[in-house]
Write a structure and sequence with these properties.
Elements (H helix, E strand, L loop, with lengths): L8 E4 L5 H12 L3 E6 L14 H9 L5 E5 L5 H14 L5 E4 L22 H29 L2 E6 L12 H21 L4 E8 L5 H6 L20 H12 L10 E4 L9
Parallel strand pairs: 1-2, 1-4, 2-3, 4-5, 5-6, 6-7
The structure holds nicotinamide-adenine-dinucleotide (NAD).
Nicotinamide-adenine-dinucleotide binds next to α1, α4 and α6.
Amino acid sequence: MPNELSGKIAFVTGSGRGLGKTMARKLAEQGADLALHDLDWTSPSKYGEAANLDEVIREFEALGVRTVAVTGNIGDPAAVKRMREEIEAKLGEVQILVNCAGGDIGASGNKPSPNNALDVSFEDIQVLTNNNLIGTMLVTQAFVPQMVRAGTGTVINVASAAAHMGCSPEVVYSTLKAAVVHYTRCLAKELYEQGVRINAVSPGPTKTARFQATRVTDPDKMNSSKASFNRYAEPDEIGDAVAFLAGPRSKFINGQVLRVDGGLTLFPG
Ligand SMILES: NC(=O)c1ccc[n+]([C@@H]2O[C@H](COP(=O)([O-])OP(=O)(O)OC[C@H]3O[C@@H](n4cnc5c(N)ncnc54)[C@H](O)[C@@H]3O)[C@@H](O)[C@H]2O)c1
């Protein structure tokens, strides 16, 4: 269904690279204008995906949609406010918000080490909480009031398969993603009479550049005998789920979590 999002303005956090960029492209391919975002202008280069946000903007403009990019830490309320003002001045009010920025990246800029419950550092706990939960809440608080006023809008939060099963290592990350799942349900409950839909996508392990660069073992094949599809996800497979939840075909879906993980969490429940 091409162009089912034309006339809409979408903001995807963490869309300078990785899954966020793929999600943003899927929305742009359906006609949405795009506000791209990353921590800073050169974050897209961290795992070699693009030199900077200028390059990413050009990719999106080639799809024929209006595109802007903003930068800032989603865990910083002043930065979030500034980014909203910039997007509204350049594009207009956002009707589709995808809270994608996050990941199991600690204070050092890499995976926390140690990364288990009893040994993970306080500094890493704070950074992970900012990146994965507080940031999602702050961006939601900044962008959803306009949707409520307009009586329409949709939010897609990016959780993880790790939210649905006990994990160690990655204890803090998976705990925070479980909180993102529950936040999604609470927000849907709070806003269901206001015309704003809130859903979440829980990706299984997905072959983004960051994932492949920070994975220590088994880069090509799923390392779990419990996976019903014995492989990692392609970023497009996650992006398609986000585009579905952003558009009119999912108009009766609210407060749900779509696990796009090839059945990985089928068995733990
Ligand atoms: N790739 C996977 O296997 C996988 C699986 C499940 C969930 N996820 C989730 O998908 C999302 C994207 O992951 P990815 O694999 O594309 O990783 P990535 O590191 O390539 O992308 C994350 C993006 O978020 C940005 N970001 C992180 N913290 C930020 C902050 N505080 N402020 C501003 N920007 C910030 C990064 O700069 C980057 O652009 C994350 O939320 C991650 O937890 C990924």
